[in-house]
Amino acid sequence: MSALALKARSSWLFSFGDLVTLLITFFIMMIVLNKGEISQVQKWAESQLDTAYAQLTTQMADAEYVSLSRTANGISVNISHPEAFVKGGYNLSSALESELTQLGKALQSLKIFHLERSDVPIHILRIADADSLSWRSEVSVAGYTDDDQIDPQSPLRNNWFLSTMRAQNVMKSLYQSSELKQSQFGVTGYGKYRPVASNETREGKAKNRRVQVMISATFEKSATQPAWFK
To answer: One Pfam match, by short name (predicted)?
Structure first.
């Protein structure tokens, strides 16, 4: 077979190779563009949390029993004051109850919990609609204890029960004062697990006895979109 014939027979291979290269390049560009759009949505959501954090810190500036901080996961509210709960139990002290009522009313005023379609920029809505993203804002309450053993015969039962009941009472106070939806709250008790300090010292134990409230708001993938996305 002549060189010319071989070249003619193999020419389609080069064309096919070019096509595959173009397709791969196209899909890579689509992935990069999509990630860029999702990043825009995430940045916008983060800006809403920044605004909410600024509002909360202003309204809770005089609080002694709760402390606020902005984290990568949202807005953290830490409760570790030694007199936050009735000694040896899970009922809220009157001072903590008062501050939680104040915090609950502050939560109720935050836009992140009442977001409507008209509040979101058009380009963010388009990206969210295209990727089936829905807005979700929630208040997650988690309780923790130190590693001191609890008498099995005690009404407190164990550290899991104690941490869960403390978290539940905090959540109940916030729910009643904020008038947010029940579906926007969650409660977890971790007991002695997930300590933030050593349980070998009195100071460490005090830090581990805490309730943490995490306020989050973001767009997330959803099979069913809320009404304001339709």
So the answer is: OmpA
What's the number of domains the chain is made of?
1
Tell me if 176 sits within 8 A of 103, measured CB to CB.
no
CA distances from 98 to 79, 93, 175, 214 (A): 13, 9, 14, 19
Strands 210-221 and 133-144: antiparallel
Task: Report d(CA 211, CA 156) in Å as an integer.
Answer: 17
- Matching residue, tokens 């109940």: 172
Q: 102 lies in which domain range?
A: 3-229
Written as six digits, the tokens of 13 are 């291979």
Q: Which amino acid belongs to residue 47?
A: S
HSE value, Cβ hemisphere, 13 Å, CA-based, for 140: 12
C-alpha–C-alpha distance, residues 70 and 26, integer Å: 39
Tell me the pLDDT tens digit for each residue of 207-226: 999 999 999 999 988 765 55
Where the chain has pLDDT below 50, the residues are 6, 32-35, 227-230
Tokens 């909360």, located at residue = 56
What pLDDT does residue 33 have? 45
Write the burial class of residue 57 (CB in 10 Å: 0-12 exposed, 13-18 middle, 19+ buried). Answer: middle
| Res 140: pLDDT | 97
Residue type, position 79, single letter: I
Determine the Cα–Cα distance for residues 227 and 10; give it in Å rounded to an integer. Answer: 57
Look up the CATH number of the domain holding residue 149.
3.30.1330.60
151-168 pLDDT, tens digit per residue, is: 878 888 899 999 999 999
